[in-house]
């Protein structure tokens, strides 16, 4: 399917690996020029090289922490007129709520709520003026279903969801959409880190933990960054112009609900 976005400019935050990388590759496949971002320069450079080798699109790499003012400025200087913004950022590490300090809570809210809002504030007015824009926020299944130890991440991402529920409708008539993708158990470094933690706590092998968790998912497997990225690219396409304010759950059926 031609997504109708060839030649569009996309900023994909935290895209040197994992789900962000999957989104960047899917948008590049659709013909978008892409601004990549990551904190590890070596990983970022490899992703950029892989992207250039596969697709004939413009690629800019910004090595920076998107949660900082300097990091955001670098992204915006590289692409002030982005048509597409994919908000993504690492979440706070797993920690019991009783162990969270005030500083840790504020950092978590900045990472997963304030930063995406700041980038939207910077880029959406230009999208509105041009009559086209797509914002996709990568949040989490934990916005709907609590996950032990991820209370801070869940709360911050749920706050972002609630904040933008009004904003997306305020700007809907200008050709700009805002949607959220809620990943379940995706085969990423973060998930694999959870296997290691669970193995240490249970005394089981990492492979046994992996198999047990996969068995809990009705589809019997974990998701992957490639299929996640394709969903993101569709939400950024011309075909998704009537979709806004939605939370798209990609979890293989793990969340048990009819609505």
Automatic annotation (TrEMBL):
* Residues of the signal peptide: none
Note the superkingdom of the native organism: Bacteria
Family matches, as InterPro entries: NAD(P)-bd_dom_sf, SDR, SDR_fam
**What Pfam families does the record tag this protein with?**
adh_short_C2
Entry's family note: Belongs to the short-chain dehydrogenases/reductases (SDR) family.
User: What is the protein's name according to its record?
Assistant: SDR family oxidoreductase
> What is the source species?
Roseibium aggregatum
Taxonomic lineage per UniProt? Bacteria, Pseudomonadati, Pseudomonadota, Alphaproteobacteria, Hyphomicrobiales
């Amino acid at each position: 399917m031609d997504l109708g976005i060839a030649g569009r400019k996309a900023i994909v935050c935290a895209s040197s690996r994992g789900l962000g990388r999957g989104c960047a590759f899917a948008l590049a496949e659709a013909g978008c020029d892409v601004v990549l971002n990551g904190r590890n320069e070596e990983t970022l450079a490899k992703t950029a090289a892989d992207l250039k080798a596969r697709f004939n699109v413009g690629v800019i790499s910004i090595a920076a922490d998107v949660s900082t003012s300097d990091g955001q400025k670098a992204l915006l200087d590289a692409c002030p007129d982005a048509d597409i913004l994919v908000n993504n950022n690492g979440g706070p590490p797993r920690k019991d709520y009783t162990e969270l300090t005030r500083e840790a809570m504020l950092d978590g809210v900045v990472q997963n709520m304030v930063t995406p809002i700041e980038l939207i504030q910077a880029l959406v007015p230009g999208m509105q003026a041009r009559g086209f824009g797509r914002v996709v926020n990568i949040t989490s299944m934990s916005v709907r279903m609590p996950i032990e130890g991820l209370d801070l991440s869940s709360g911050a991402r749920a706050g972002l969801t609630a904040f933008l529920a009004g904003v997306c409708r305020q700007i809907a008539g200008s050709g700009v959409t805002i949607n959220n993708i809620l990943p379940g158990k995706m085969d990423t470094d973060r998930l694999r880190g959870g296997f290691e933690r669970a193995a240490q706590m249970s005394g089981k092998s990492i492979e046994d933990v992996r198999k047990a968790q996969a068995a809990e998912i009705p589809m019997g497997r974990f998701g992957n960054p490639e299929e996640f990225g394709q969903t993101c690219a569709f939400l950024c396409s011309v075909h998704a112009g009537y979709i806004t304010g939605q939370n798209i759950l990609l979890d293989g059926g793990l969340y048990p609900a009819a609505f």
